[in-house]
Write a structure and sequence with these properties.
By secondary structure, this protein is mainly α. It has one domain. It has 2 helices and 2 strands, in the order αββα. It has a two-stranded antiparallel sheet with strand order 1-2. Helix 1 (5-31) runs antiparallel to helix 2. 9% of the residues are buried. The model has no long low-confidence stretch (mean pLDDT 95).
């Protein structure tokens, strides 16, 4: 598959966006009183941790694909 430079930039920005947004969301979830029952994490926290980790992994993969597309477009 060949990506244009525009799509490559879009994918890189989407990856960066994930890394800007999700850690801030993680901090908010961590501080939420529904996340803890005493010192024990609740299912609310665990579900959100899974979502955050998955989103960061997908964002990283998308960003890497965009970076690889940018480099390939530069070499053409």
């Amino acid at each position: 598959m060949v990506l244009s430079r525009r799509w490559s930039v879009f994918l890189v920005l989407a990856g960066v966006w994930s890394w800007v947004i999700w850690p801030r969301f993680a901090a908010a979830i961590w501080a939420d009183p529904r996340s803890w029952h005493g010192s024990t994490p609740t299912s609310f926290l665990l579900v959100h941790v899974v979502l955050i980790v998955a989103s960061l992994a997908i964002g990283t993969a998308v960003g890497v694909l965009g970076l690889r597309g940018w480099r390939a477009a530069r070499n053409r």
